[in-house]
Amino acid sequence: MSTNEKIRVDKYLWAIRVFKTRSQAADACDGGKVKMNGNSVKAAKPVAVGDKFEIKTEARKWIIEVTGLISNRVAYSEAVKYYVDNTPEEDKSGTNFMPSVFQTGKRQSKIGRPTKKERRELDDFMGNPED
């Protein structure tokens, strides 16, 4: 990649795998969750080597420094060569949030519609003669 080529912030963050999609990266920029050199930045701003980013994602907080420019998404093992992660250890683990209910994949009771199996059990219990 040539040194004079301009890369957008959203495209760069997507290429180094901070965000899964470019639209998520652009939305984060528009929502003020991405700061470049201490200031909120728009998605179309060009990235330069040496820029420092503070990024807040759903999973964790990132503090990175750009060491190289990349425009196409590559494997994670390749992507880490284009930035230095300066995130403190306590922020790397993501949210230290313990859910109040252990999520097993099943719906919580009394929330939402019953499943087909639960509906049949209810019908059998109530004795509905729909069969």
TrEMBL record:
Segments of this protein annotated with the region Disordered: 88-131
Biological process (GO), any one: cellular response to heat
Record GO terms (molecular function): DNA binding; ribosomal large subunit binding; single-stranded RNA binding
Keyword Nuclease: no
Biased composition (Basic residues): 107-117
Pfam family for this entry, one: S4
Compositional bias (Polar residues): 94-106
Domain RNA-binding S4: 7-68
Keyword rRNA-binding recorded: no
Keywords: DNA-binding, RNA-binding, Stress response
InterPro entries: HSP15 (IPR025708), S4_RNA-bd (IPR002942), S4_RNA-bd_sf (IPR036986)
Family: Belongs to the HSP15 family.
Name of this protein: Heat shock protein Hsp15
Organism of derivation: Chitinophaga jiangningensis
